[in-house]
Amino acid sequence: MAASKPVGWGILSTGKHARKVALAVQAAHPGAIVAVASRDKTKAEAFVREVGLEGASAYGSYEALIADPKVEAIFNVLPNGMHLEWTLKAARAGKHTLCEKPLASNASEAQEMADGCKKAGLLLMEAFMYRLHPQSAKLLSEVQSGAIGELRFIRSAFCFIMEDLANVRLSASLAGGALMDVGCYCINFSRFMAQAEPLEVAAVAEFGAQSKVDEVFAGTLHFPRGIVAQFHVNFRVSGDTQAEVVGSKGKLRIERPWFPDVKSAAFQVQTGSDVRTVTTDHGGNTYALEFERFAAAIRGQGPLPLPPEDGVRNMRVIDALYRAARTGQNVKLG
Ligand SMILES: NC(=O)c1ccc[n+]([C@@H]2O[C@H](COP(=O)([O-])OP(=O)(O)OC[C@H]3O[C@@H](n4cnc5c(N)ncnc54)[C@H](OP(=O)(O)O)[C@@H]3O)[C@@H](O)[C@H]2O)c1
């Protein structure tokens, strides 16, 4: 059987994450990235050179990249507040979009993106790369096998120090904030483990006096079947990033839920005094995996691992949590 033509990728922006992902994709699939765009052409040229994207075009505007016929799919790695605009512009130019998390600034924008891509017959996926690592499927399988009894509680945290007011994470106008930046992982993980949508949420937050975005956020999600999830995200502490999934008979302890070790990822299944370690050796680079799986879906060689509706549902929970934090009232999700 003839191998299908590789998907030509265009990267929108030359920021920190764009560079990290491009390096991983170039190492796994040399030549897959055919174009890079920046607001400043010299930055795009430097990116192409430094990442070693030989032969890739360097554009000085995002418009020029999405007009390039070599580009079949874009990686939208712009600040959160720009995801909607450039995903829709890419869709109008006939390009598929792998879009960074969180999918948009709010659920209605995310819905607009999902609808726009669907109407154009194009794929859209939120880049929750950890979901594509085999560790995530193994975690769900432990829960579903009953290894920890009935699922009761999910606890997760994602914290690091962020004080640079010039960083997009501390920009209100670009839809920054701890809940948007990393709380989205905790919500996605909780929904994934519960295999359900929360019925109701409660939250507290600390907003930065200067940044005006939430720099500390703690949320509680109440799921069907009596399952409760709690999470904590914080730009003012480091070293608290992990997850636990607690059942009636035991729990899963995951030290690296979002960035599983490339060589050997591991989590523990604890029941009473018994501790079993589940490992995944060479599970793959999650950034290369998201590009591979999205490209396979474009070619009809596999399912879209994370349909856009999943991103819309995650954003609905984010919206509800912000409402809960701002009003001090629990918010029900319809
Ligand atoms: N999945 C993950 O592991 C992960 C990790 C980190 C970040 N992310 C996501 O990736 C996205 C980008 O984050 P990042 O950390 O790469 O941010 P970043 O380093 O600030 O890069 C963002 C880029 O967007 C472009 N941009 C266009 N308009 C801008 C504006 N008004 N202000 C600032 N930048 C502007 C700039 O590129 P040009 O100057 O080249 O145009 C900039 O370098 C976010 O959605 C974030 O949530 C995901």
Could you please say which CATH topology of the largest domain applies here?
Dihydrodipicolinate Reductase, domain 2
Number of strands: 15
Q: What's the architecture of the largest domain in CATH terms?
A: 2-Layer Sandwich
Briefly note the structural class of the backbone: alpha/beta
The count of domains is 2
According to CATH, the homologous superfamily of the largest domain is Dihydrodipicolinate Reductase, domain 2
Q: Give the terminus-to-terminus CA distance.
A: 48 Å
Strand order of the largest sheet: 14-13-12-11-7-10-9-8-15
Write a compact overview of the structure shown:
It is built from 9 helices and 15 strands. The radius of gyration is 20 Å and the shape is globular.
